[in-house]
Each structure stands twice: as structure tokens, then as C-alpha cells.
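pipeline/complex-builder :: batch 7 item 3
reading input block
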Amino acid sequence: MGELRAYAALASAQIRSAATYRSSFLVELFGNMGATVFDVLTVLVLFRATPAVGGFSLWEAILIVGLSSAGFALADFAVGNVDRLKTFVRAGTMDSVLVRPLRALPQLLLMDLPVRKVLRVALGFTVLGVALAANDIDWTPPRVLLVVLAPVTAAVFFGSIFVISASLAFWWVDSGEIGSAFTYGGRDFTSYPITVYGPWFRNLFAYTLGFAFVAYQPALALLGRPDPLGLPAWAGFLSPLVALGAVVVAAAVWRAGIRHYRSTGS
Amino acid sequence: MIRMRELHKSFTVRVKAGRFRREKRTVAAVDGVSLTIGRGEMVGYIGPNGAGKSTTLKMLTGVLTPSSGEVSVCGLTPVPQRTRLALRIGVVFGQRSQLWWDLPLRESFALLRHIYRVPAGDHAARLRRCRELLDLDEFLDTPVRQLSLGQRMRGELTAALLHGPEVLFLDEPTIGLDVVSKQAVRSFLAELGATGDVTLVLTTHDLADIERLCERLVVIDHGRVVHDGSIEALHTRYGSRRSLVADLEKPLPDGFELPGASLTAVTANGHRVTFTLDSATAGAAVAGLVAAVPVRDLSLVEPDIEDVVARLYAER
């Protein structure tokens, strides 16, 4: 209880600090909204050239985009801040975080309350909502459950990817934008039906790393379409388990990373 | 209160070994430190740059994981029990701020009350005491980014003490401060130490901090403890001696010798002489000198700790 109040105090401090820089806040707010608009535009442009991509119609593809961007925006809002870890590690300011009586990860996340990213979350869910209405979905109870769980599951999965790629900085201070290959790269990967990718690339990203379970498999399960790649129809319902696995891996990587932190000379 | 046994920390560094080649090398920053520090002790922890002072402090506070060895602070193991330990220790890293850059000092203090879950009464009492002793009132409402270094450091000290820590770790608390601010920080710490409730471990490059505050001095070099004891013990060990400086009416006669002392300098055309007292007492030396030549002025110079430490560092 006391600990929750401590985190709340930390968050309120961040809001008050941010309020001292008002104009940069507005610029970022609109910059962020632009990003999601472009995700949707890319898909629309693609379908102007061809009526189907990887065996999927426009609205089916938009459903995949919607699931992916709603999940990603939610994850980016909640834990996207973790990518400033590399700055903290490089400057050694992680020291100040580690001498406080609070857990390190929540502290980092609360270093900045990204109100500017809220618009992006709203936009992601709007795209998802429109796609759900436009597709002819047979609403069975399991599908209702899935549609509620899927964006959250996707967010948890992306959140874990955010934490893992940020943790690279503990071992490799100049990790730079390598982590973005997995976070933003992962979002782009999951925005399309995975049937469009070549086999080895697909096997690595979709199945080994689990990105297929972010949007593609849940979308199939919602649409009631058989998987052209041969997984059973209920595979989409496995998404929460895959996300849970990602959380376990992320927690282990983070913990190992903290112990590997080497600070800087002072 | 603090126990370290055979504590080691080594880092792997990559060294350029050619245009593209890089070699991995292991550097021991702390190389087998064993120390026990009791409740209420004030310990100065000194050493040249890169000796391993900060690394030790970071292992004691749970920031760094030791490579090997044992460490316990307040009966807790720093890294696994980091958050519990943090409630019982205070930390001031001279180069890293604990305060909120964009918020007034007053708000930082209020936030720390929630973060450390301090009862409002205790918090108010401790803050009142720090405000008096450190003269915080004039800048309590200024955003931290606008404070001078001396003001900020006084804020950092307060921030580290508001939760009533049992152990206070100070990493170069006077670095970069002007004389007045240094004095303010030192007398505040002296007062704090005099209560006997707080164990204080301080690293510094300014030996005046140590002379003023610490009875026990630990000197570390190349990651090892090279001296652990009082400042007097250090003087005895390195044979630092007092010296007698005298202004004379006329130069010393040729071949003059003072039993138990050696002539180390003659300046001002022979009118100023310096003797180092090897075995002679100050009284005997003065009497011997006055008997030989008329003396205008005399002074007795205590050994300088800076010299002793410089000699200690040079020995490596």
C-alpha cells in the first residue's frame, strides 16, 4: 500500500516536471498521432495496387493492423519509456534509481508519463473497432473473450519485447537502435498477414520469437478462417500463453541485466 | 554495521589493440577488501583516482553486484535485498543527483517522504533540523536546476537524511564546492556524527574533510586496503615529523648541528632555517637553537597529511 503511494508520488512528480515544458509536449503529441495514421495509410496504399495480399482481403488485413497497432500503442504507452535505459546506463544515472527503496523497472517507467502517446492508443483501438465492424464475424462467446484479450495480450507481448531490447544496454552500452529492430520492426512485421513473408524469415520471427501470436493468429480465430500455414483454428487462443512466456523471458533478462550493470567512474 | 570479506569486483574492458582489433582485458577495481565498520563510526575512505573507492561504495549500496566475496550492511545483503536496505541507508553521490531537476527543493523533499514512507511528524522534524543547520530556507522554493552547486549539495544531504538512515554513504560530498560551502557541509556532518546514531562512510580527495571528521582512515590503492587506522597511526607509520622553522638575526655558524634534528632548508640568505625533528623534542630543539644564535621568530609545523598521502600513493 505504502509502496503504491510511493509510485503514485513518483508519477505526479513527473507530470509536474513535464508541465514546465509545455510546447515540446504539444509537438510530441501530434507527432505521435501521425505515426499510427501512416501505419493504416501504408496498408490502404498496398491494397490499391492489389485486391488481396497473402490471401487476405483489405478488411481482413485492416483487422490485423488494428490488433497490432492497438497492442503496440498500449505497450508503448505503458513501458515504451524503458528505452531510455540506455541513456541511464551510459551516463551512470542508473545509480540514483538503484539507491531508492523502489523497484528499478517501475521507477524507469514512471520517469516520464507519456500522456502524448494516449492519442496513439485511441487511434489504434479505433482502427481495430472499425475493422471488427467491417468484417463479418460470427460472435461466439470464445471470440468475444478473445477480442477483449487480444489487444491486451499483444500489448503484454510487445511490452516484454521493449524490456528485453532495452536490457541490451546493460551488456552493450552502445546498443543504440538495435533494440528498435525488434520493437518497431516487430510492429511492422505483425501488421501484415505472415503469409507474405519468406519461409525462413517467417519461421524465425513468427514462430520462434512468437510474433505470429500478436495479431495474425488471433485475427484468424476471430474471422474463423483456416490457417493457410496449417496451424489449427484454436491457435489464436494460445496468444495469452505466448505473451506469458515472453514476460517470463523479459523478467529473467532484466534481472540478469541489473546484476550486470557496471555504472561509470565518478 | 558494515562487513566486507574478501570483496572483489572486476570489469572486462575492451582495449584497442590495432586499427580494428580489440582485446578483452579484465581489470580488478576492488581486489580483496575486508573491513568491518561499527555503529556510529566515521570512516574516511580515500585513495587516488581509480583506486576503487566508488566501486566499493556502489557494492555497499546494492548498485553493483560483487564479483566475489561477502558484504553485509545493516545485516542485509545489498544486491538481493536492495530495496529493504535502501530504506535504512542514505546515499549522496557528489556527481549524481537524487533530486528532481525541474521541481523546487521543497517538492523533492515532500516526494521523498512518500518514496521512503516516512511518518509525517518524523519527516517534518528532520527537515526542520536540516533547514536550520544547512540554511536551506532562502532557496527552498527554487527549482533544483537553478541552484548553485553548494546549495544543491546541501539539498542532497538533506534528501539523504530525511528517512533517518542508520548508515550514510557520501561519495565526494565536497567536490567542487567553495570554501564556505565546504565548511557548511563539514560542520553539518561533524554535528551529525557527534550524535553517534549514524555510521558515516565518506570518500573524498580533500583530506581536510577527513581531518575534520573522521577518526578512522582507510586508504585504498589498486583495489586493496593499504592503511586502516587513525591519522596519527598513518603519520607514525610513514615517519612524518614535525618541523621547526626559525627566523634568525644572523646566519647559523658553519657546521652547526642540533642533536636529534636535521637541517632541511636554509633560505633568505641564511636568515630562515627549517629543522625536521627526528628524535628531539620541540623544547630541546628550540633551546639548542636559541643558545647558538639570536632568534627573531619561531614556528612549529605539524606534518601535513597531504604529504603523507602523496608519499603513500607514490609508493606503488
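note: Chain B has two domains: 2-237, 243-314.
queue -> next item
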